[in-house]
Amino acid sequence: MLRSARWSLSVGLLACLAPALSAAENIADSRLANTARYLSSDELAGRGVGEKGIDQAAEFIAAEFKKMGLKTDLIEGAPYQKFTITIEAVQGPPEQNKLTLVGPAKDGKPQQVELTLGQDFTPLAIGGSSVLDAPLVFVGYGITAADLEYDEYANLDVKDKIVIILRKEPQQNNPHSLFDGDKNTPHAFFQNKVANAYEHGAAAVILVNDGQELITQAKKAAEDLKKAIAAISKAVTEFKATEKPSAEAKTKYQQQLVKLAERLQQASTAEASDHDKVLAFAEAGPSASRKTFPVMFATRAAINQLIEASLDTTLDKLEQKIDDDLKPVSTALAGWKAIGEVAVAQHEAEVKNVIAVLPGEGPLADETIVIGAHYDHLGMGGTGSLAPWTKAIHNGADDNASGAAALLETAWRLSQREKKPARRIVFIAFTGEERGLLGSAHYVREPLFPLESTIAMINMDMVGRLSDNKLIIQGFDTAVSFDALLDTINASAKFEVVKKTGGFGPSDHSSFYAKKIPVFHLFTGTHADYHRPTDDFDKLNLEGMDRVVDFVVALTDAIDADPKRPEYVEKKKPEVIARGGSRPYLGSIPDFGVEVEGYALQGVAPGSPADEAGIKAGDVIIKLGASKIGSLEDIDSALRKHKAGEKVPVVVLRDKKEVTVMVTLGEPR
């Protein structure tokens, strides 16, 4: 409990900390508003990682820090903590993407199916690069579902072989199927199929359209053709009904007919096709961490050739057999192999955290309080956007121009006083948060000031839409004193505070809590514009943002004024960090900032199965049970092959050496 004798700040004094700006007559013209307006402007084009706009934002933030008189010559004379990340995967040149299926000689002639890039097959971004020369194995839908007692890899050796996997899952038209009939279960997802193949030791994956997909595409094409014909009929009817159309109307009608004719031609061509199309390079998802594990997509027609030659049957018949009795038909394709090459290039970009320091004064000056907010967003959309079909500027006014503006305003209010704080205050505008807390993960790996003397971290993410006076604050239980401190400050701030437990969550405070640093995370709630192009400046609650800044200033002052550092509290039952659901609980905390083949850990949840087994921050899990682990998707898939209470061996890389520990998996959370 917080004892008043330990604090030099009373409730009345905290109320006086609110600067004059809170009473400004026109908040719309304030420094805070102007900062948020600029950071969310079209000029910065959504502050996408690897794009020009985010560099402009970084330069602006750095300049503002310098204007305040903060120390910014921190790294080679600048405030930028730079590092490199992979921002996208791109398809390599045609000469490095080739695939041929080679079979045993028949009638004295070699059997060979050469696939044409872009027509018969395509590499996928979710895979990596490698030279191919390995046997082929057909594994049906590529599903291992222990809970359904269905395993298409059972008694099948696919190690160092190339597996052929059908899209979707069995019995798609059966509403009573174990696989939920016409609803996709997680087993239908590309990433899960690929992860399962990787776990079983396969060398590469060839995905192929299932029969139902062709039927679905045929129905869609027929419907599109029908709509195209109807659109022409409607246009003609409407024009004929016009009495004495003007020359302008005639011209417009002719232009409309040209466009409708093009639409009709495209629809007619699609309707007449076999609907057996390959996926586009990025259509199965963005790049994965398995850099040497190729994933390809081939047409059904191409794969049918070798199925007929090897098994004397067809994919249609194999699918029907699975549907009839729900038993796998997986088998090696004797004498057949795939040769060729897949090249997937990884495009990298230099990114940077922007850091400034307000030095402390006195005996506690070597201790640090971090205040942070991320400044990146989604650029023109794409991965991460909740309107992925729209290529438009995602200005991210609330997410997180609001937090970055509040960070700068907090820095201004704290730095413009005559008296210095007792402790060093480090202000960090993080990059790469939208891609997995990359900036904060990098900082805690390479801190400018020792983490052991970093006593607290305050994070602001989406603080621009205060509604019903509700301020969500996470972390009140990450230090012994924080709950009472929060109540004390809010006595004058008068928010409707919603307290959220724990220090782990989908923002940058999580990286610090994983390093046993108490945290506060402030958030005003999500909304319909989240991760969409409509998250614009004019929807921000500027008065609410201003009050949030007052609150953060008061939090900082109170933590700084206490001569005793906050006492860190471990959460014995933290919230789930990664995907949960029905799988057993491990308690690992992923480190998205480390690019490595395996599952890198930023930490483990205190008291979790991983913690009790001795798994540590910095470990890279490369095997769980019998499953090979190369990414986050693999660990999720591997856990689903086990049950709570099971004791499984886990192999981790620690200081470049393999260490095996036994983990007793926990109940799902």
Q: Gyration radius, to the nearest Å?
A: 29 Å
Low-confidence stretches: 1-25, 573-581
The description of the largest β-sheet is:
8 strands, mixed
**Share in β-strands:** 15-25%
SS element count, helices: 15
Strand order, sheet with most strands:
1-12-14-13-15-18-16-17
Describe the global form. Answer: globular
Tell me the CATH superfamily of the largest domain: Zn peptidases
Mean pLDDT: 89
User: How many domains make up the 3D coordinates?
Assistant: 4
The first-level CATH class of the largest domain is given as Alpha Beta
CATH architecture of the largest domain: 3-Layer(aba) Sandwich
Structural class call reads alpha/beta
Structural account:
With 669 residues, the protein is α/β, with parallel strands linked by helices. The protein folds into 4 domains: 25-89 and 349-561, 3-Layer(aba) Sandwich (Aminopeptidase), CATH 3.40.630; 94-209 and 276-342, Glucose Oxidase, domain 1; 230-272; 588-665, Roll (Pdz3 Domain). The protein is built from 15 helices and 24 strands. The strands form 4 sheets. It has an 8-stranded mixed beta sheet with strand order 1-12-14-13-15-18-16-17, sandwiched between helices. An 8-stranded mixed beta sheet has the order 3-2-11-5-8-9-10-4, with helices on both faces. Strands 19, 20, 21, 22, 23 and 24 form a 6-stranded antiparallel beta sheet that branches. β16 (470-474), α11 (482-493) and β17 form a beta-alpha-beta unit. α2 runs antiparallel to α9 and α9 (397-415) packs across α13. The longest helix has 30 residues, at 211-240. It is globular. The chain starts with 10 loop residues before the first helix and ends in a 5-residue tail after the last strand.
